[in-house]
Write a structure and sequence with these properties.
This protein has helices at residues 10-16, 21-38, 57-74, 111-129, 163-169, 186-197, 237-250, 272-286, 288-293, 326-339, and strands at residues 45-50, 78-82, 134-136, 152-155, 176-179, 201-204, 207-210, 217-221, 224-225, 231-232, 257-260, 294-300. By secondary structure, it is of the alpha/beta class. It is globular and about 55 Å long.
Length: 340
């Protein structure tokens, strides 16, 4: 291991790139609106939606500006939380790891530029478009670089059993979604939620810290892969009823789930996200308890349909997992609002 340079701590980066009072107020407003959904005080439907990975500042902000127009039209029924995922987990460690590692996907990794780039893109979304966004907590120790900007955090399927992720989530002031692991063991996800909802004392960034517990920690169902490598969905009506029963048996605060329409639920067939979203909403319609449990959907969407290789140059097209294009996304959001 080669130690290249000492990186600035989050406190210094925040001082270098501070928020305005309006940004602080807008983020707090978004956060309170989201919390009211997870507390069951609001029946608005949450859409955590956007590119698989934030690979290009211009196209990501272009995409989010389009969401801004749609959000204003469906605000009475839908809360849109744009995905700006700046870290990309890799199954075997190879490939593009996200903007944090490579602000320019065609160049070599530069972590200092990456830290600045991810704070900049989240700041632009909040300052210029009024969106406090979502990101994945791939590295718990890096969360503080963005902690004053985010409204929603996801803990991925490969991270959900990690103790540091669980304990860090317990100290956050935002809703944190815990995905079921890739092999589908729901008990792993539920144990992560238990841990995140309780207080802990632990080491974080060289400090001894005590968390208060996060009552907004909740489940994300994303499907799983069986022993034969087949994608197995877990968004169906029976899955949601079973999850609701499990929540109540465990006595957890604020039972909630966000259903991930892509990944193993769709077999990464991005067009299936449309059908899956409608299927989940239909499940909500036939069972009030399911509707109370299901707080929204997670959808991978960008400007252009599908995906491309890193060295291709189609504007607004994913360089990681395939995404739903803008025209289909816009129609889906309006359909969701009309069906609620």
């Amino acid at each position: 291991m080669i130690f290249k340079r000492k990186l600035p701590i989050p406190q210094d980066i925040k001082a270098q790139f501070p928020l305005t009072q309006k940004m602080i107020d807008d983020r707090q407003k978004s956060l309170e609106e989201l919390k009211s959904v997870f507390e069951g005080k609001s029946d608005k439907f949450v859409l955590v939606i956007g590119p698989c990975s934030a690979d290009n500042k211009d196209s990501v902000l272009d995409y989010i500006s389009r969401l801004r127009t749609v959000q204003d039209k469906v605000a009475d029924k839908v809360i849109i939380v744009p995905r700006i995922y700046t870290n990309k987990p890799r199954t075997n460690g190879s490939g593009y790891k996200g903007m944090l590692h490579q602000p320019d996907p065609t160049k070599e990794p530069d972590m200092l530029e990456g830290i600045i780039a991810i704070r900049d893109i989240h700041m632009c979304a909040l300052r210029d478009l009024g969106f406090s966004c979502a990101d994945e907590m791939l590295y718990p120790e890096n969360h503080r670089y963005l902690s004053d900007l985010l409204a929603y955090i996801a803990v991925g399927a490969r991270s959900v059993e990690n103790q540091q992720h669980r304990l860090t989530a317990s100290g956050m002031d935002v809703p944190v979604g815990m995905k079921n692991p890739t092999e589908g063991d729901i008990s792993v996800m539920m144990n992560a939620i238990v841990a995140a909802q309780h207080s802990h004392t632990f080491i974080y960034r060289g400090w001894e810290v005590t968390s208060e517990g996060n009552p907004y920690a909740h489940a994300i169902l994303r499907g799983f892969t069986d022993a034969f490598g087949r994608c197995m969905p877990n968004y169906h009506y029976e899955d949601l009823v079973r999850l609701n029963e499990t929540y109540h048996q465990m006595g957890l605060a604020n039972p909630a789930v966000i259903v991930d329409a892509n990944h193993a639920n769709s077999g990464k067939k991005y067009l299936e996200q449309i059908r899956i979203t409608h299927d989940v909403i239909n499940s909500c319609k036939v069972n009030p308890d399911v509707r109370k449990l299901v707080k929204g959907m997670m959808i991978e969407s960008y400007i252009e349909d599908g995906a491309q290789k890193v060295d291709e140059c189609t504007y607004g097209k994913s360089i990681t997992d395939p995404c739903l294009g803008w025209e289909k996304t816009e129609r889906l959001i309006y359909d969701v609002a009309e069906s609620l």
